[in-house]
Amino acid sequence: MGADPRTTPPPTRIPWTAIRPTERVLMLTSQRLALDLPPTDAPMPQTTQGVLIAVTILATVAMVAWVVWLRQHSGSTAPLFVLVGSLLVVFYEPLGDSLLGAYYPEAGQVTAIHAFGRDMPLFVLLLYPPYFVPFVVAFLELARRGFTVRSWWTLWVVTLVSGGLMEMVLMQFGNPWLYYGRQTLMIFEFPLWVTVTNVTFLFATAVVVRLIVTRLDTRHHWMVIPAVPIMTISGHAAVALPGAATRESSSDLVMLAGGLGSIAVAVLIGYALSLAYVGRGAPAVEPTVDATR
Q: Is residue 2 part of a domain?
């Protein structure tokens, strides 16, 4: 039987000055690490989850119908391959979330997969097709017409802002996902530096998809499927690292520098990718592919 709390004396508090410096460092470090653990007792809001599942099911069904229509009317298999490849991204989601300090509550969650010690909700898996396919199709069409500096960065900014607004709005309905631990550049419980990771992997994916469909024979276009998760991981991790590396710092200034560093990396990658489409880097003639090879 446990001790009677009415008769058990309170624990003796040891003065901070009586603790050896090495032990102080260990205590502070363990406290910072504890603050960076996801809140596993947080509940998934059931109404919001139900609505998200219903909406993403409808959106994914619409994407399937659309890519089939595109295949029949334009002969392009790229949108279909992008859709299939986008579903594989869910296996990276837990790792990407740990870099950002993001968490999908697992209590009451309708789970799609379990990977890297975390459960991923069904609505996240179903969100990927409507997240990737329209963007890549729009990018391919804009690239066919020819990007200008204005159209490139307009697409970049619109993608950035719309993604950030979507997260900030949905997080107000009971937090179907949340950000934990120490964060910087926060607005409405949303760290602004996080959204640049999303715009970067979308652009990186679209660029590689276009290279595949314009430079390779059509029998090799299936390579779009693995390219989608590979470029998502590459773009997301590259941008997330500066912010992720400074999240456990006790200095707000260091954390701010990390968040701004992630934004700077995202802008640099966006600029580097634009060189292949805007100005001198753009090819004078759209390459053609001999499908008989």
A: no
The answer to whether residue 60 is domain-embedded is: yes
Domain of 184 in residue numbering reads as 36-281
| 3 state SS for 209-243 | HHHHHHHCCHHHHHHHHHHHHHHHHHHHHHHHHHH
The structure's pTM equals 0.81
Q: Is residue 199 part of a domain?
A: yes
Picking from 196, 191, 193, the residue whose alpha carbon sits closest to that of residue 178 is: 191
Q: In the predicted model, what is the mean pLDDT of the chain?
A: 85
Encoded tokens for 159: 């993608």
Q: What pLDDT digit, counting tens, does each position of 217-243 carry?
A: 989 999 999 999 999 999 999 999 999
Count of domains forming the chain: 1
In which residue ranges of the chain is pLDDT below 50?
Answer: 1, 5, 10-11, 16, 24-35, 280-293
Q: Would you say 30 and 102 are in contact if contact means Cβ atoms under 8 Å apart?
A: no
Q: Compute the distance between CA of residue 161 and CA of residue 164 in angstroms, rounded to an integer.
A: 5
